[in-house]
Write a structure and sequence with these properties.
Ricin B lectin domain-containing protein; Trefoil (Acidic Fibroblast Growth Factor, subunit A); four-stranded antiparallel β-sheet; 38% strand; mainly beta; globular; signal
Length: 176
């Protein structure tokens, strides 16, 4: 019976991604969040792109190995500001260039890289799936979620939250 509390503790401790460096992959497209073109100019679009330097994924912890170790504009340092139940409030800072993900917070608005961040709610995992997969990025106090286009390769935008939409589901994969 001792293993049950240990198992529950492990599951609860793994409920939110800890602060650190991640690739954030869209479930629908398989592409990761990217500072488009790695430009350091404020207002640059934040989009999804194919992983530039990835050789393998390993489940269940999403370990990544690199072909050349160079995809800094696809690596995001996430900072946990607060938690609320199984959700957490985070900011996302690009490893390089030094920009943070920002949104105006209105439906249809695109995400951009800016010198100042927006706060995003990283929700609890989609029911029935392992805790490291399929989270949603929402804007606090709104019904809006970060959404990829069906094909990817375009600027991310805020759209009304749709729990069944895989374009609004994200996986956090350690990049460190």
């Amino acid at each position: 019976m001792l293993f049950i509390p240990l198992l529950l503790t492990a599951l609860l401790a793994d409920a939110l991604p800890p602060p650190g460096r991640y690739f954030v992959k869209n479930v629908l497209t398989g592409q990761v969040i990217d500072d488009s073109g790695a430009f350091a100019s404020p207002g640059n679009p934040v989009c999804t792109e194919h992983v530039a330097a990835m050789a393998t994924f390993t489940h269940p912890r999403q370990i990544i190995t690199f072909a050349n170790g160079n995809a800094p504009n696809q690596m995001w340092d996430i900072t946990l500001l607060a938690t609320l139940g199984e959700s957490g409030f985070y900011t996302f800072s690009c490893f390089f260039p030094p920009l943070q993900i920002y949104t105006a917070g209105a439906a249809g608005s695109g995400l951009t890289g800016e010198p100042f961040p927006s706060v995003f709610n990283v929700t609890a995992p989609v029911a029935g799936l392992p805790t490291y997969t399929r989270r949603r990025l929402t804007v606090p106090l709104t019904p809006l979620a970060v959404t990829s286009t069906v094909s990817g390769d375009q600027q991310l935008s805020l759209q009304p939250l749709n729990l069944a939409n895989p374009a609004q589901q994200w996986e956090f994969m350690s990049a460190s």
